[in-house]
Amino acid sequence: MVTTRQVRLAQRPTGLPDADTWSVTTDELPAPGDGWFVVAVDHISLDPAMRGWLDDVPSYLPPVQLGAVMRAQGTGTVTDSRHPDFPVGAAVTGTFGVTEYALSDGTGVRRIDTDVAGAATWLGALGMTGLTAYHGLYEVGALSAGDTVVISAAAGAVGSVAGQIARAAGATVIGIAGGPEKCAWLRELGFDHAIDYKNENVLRRLRELAPGGIDIYFDNVGGEILDAALANLRRGARVVLCGAIASYNDQAPPPGPRRYMSLLVNRARMQGFLVFDYPEKDAAALEALAGLAADGRLIARETVVDGAVDDFGPTLLRLFRGENTGKLVLRIA
Ligand SMILES: NC(=O)c1ccc[n+]([C@@H]2O[C@H](COP(=O)([O-])OP(=O)(O)OC[C@H]3O[C@@H](n4cnc5c(N)ncnc54)[C@H](OP(=O)(O)O)[C@@H]3O)[C@@H](O)[C@H]2O)c1
């Protein structure tokens, strides 16, 4: 028997989540039965998608139920086990929830090697984040050398990995991010250009930096930045719909993309995808990402917040204020 603090959904938020959204309980986990094991969670992933899981609307995953432990990916160490593949001491990653300890039967859990990369990186560039960037670019964007690729939220988790993958593939890469520090970091990573959307006219800058037009727009943001990209497509362009963080806390649906007729004019397509859509290609993608990291072409960065599970709610808000560079992770003391 082990005691664990857990963050639960207390109330569905309107707009940004706040303190009333969450409750923290102290619960006892039963000892693991046959085929089960206990994980002491050490890192919890913060994801913009979490905001969507709080709404009681049909989506690609069921909404988190009121009173349930908040869904979250994490890493941790097995502390008690009756499962042959997950012995005590194994480092693992999986969807353990916002909790100190989790009971698991191994479904969706992978072992990780923390000598190869730190736990936070297994949640970021070498985990779901990296897979999202990789599959989005190759499966949806049909990335190839010579493409001009534009990426929004480019200094975030998915965006920073996507830009480096595209660069390594021989594309010209333009990142869009908020503020001069983030843009300077993108240039350090090897992005050809960076646009500070908080201080520059994105539509005009795209026209200057990509006079021949954009081949791939990897959209993490939606809204006005999507419109600016649509206004600058090249014939045959691919708009990769990865996310739309600019509207996740809106109380009404966002206005439609005003420039969508550019898809017709340029015989372009816009396609959404989920990171889970290509399971048969995950292993090869993770190998490719590890290869890029090993030869220095993929720099994995994380913003690690030290705290307790109780800090989950305020930490999540950092994503919506742009207070992260690279992958945002909560490290449990
Ligand atoms: N399709 C999938 O399977 C999948 C999987 C994972 C993630 N995603 C999506 O990918 C996107 C990025 O996720 P992530 O985990 O990598 O998060 P992230 O980019 O690390 O963090 C979010 C970033 O978004 C930017 N941002 C926040 N509000 C904004 C606004 N109103 N307008 C413009 N930019 C804003 C902020 O950067 P600035 O400082 O630059 O504003 C912030 O740092 C999200 O849309 C997420 O939902 C999709």
User: Termini distance?
Assistant: 21 Å
User: What would CATH call the homologous superfamily of the largest domain?
Assistant: Medium-chain alcohol dehydrogenases, catalytic domain
Number of H- or I-type helical stretches: 10
Based on the structure given, which CATH architecture of the largest domain is correct? Alpha-Beta Complex
- Do you know the CATH topology of the largest domain? Quinone Oxidoreductase, Chain A, domain 1
- Class computed from helices, strands and strand pairing: alpha/beta
Largest sheet: 7 strands, mixed
What proportion strand? 25-35%
> What ligand species are in this complex?
NADP nicotinamide-adenine-dinucleotide phosphate
Amount of helix: 25-40%
Number of strands: 15
Number of domains: 2
Average per-residue pLDDT, rounded, comes to 98
Question: Please, could you describe this protein's structure?
Answer:
It is a single chain. This protein has 333 residues and is of the alpha/beta class. It folds into two domains: 151 residues, Quinone Oxidoreductase, Chain A, domain 1, CATH 3.90.180.10; 149 residues, NAD(P)-binding Rossmann-like Domain (Rossmann fold, 3-Layer(aba) Sandwich), CATH 3.40.50. The protein is 26% helix and 26% strand. The strands form three sheets. Strands 3, 4, 5, 6, 7, 14 and 15 form a seven-stranded mixed sheet that branches. Strand 14, helix 10 and strand 15 form a beta-alpha-beta unit. Helix 3 packs across helix 4 and helix 6 runs parallel beside helix 7. The protein is globular and about 65 Å long. Bound molecules: NADP nicotinamide-adenine-dinucleotide phosphate.
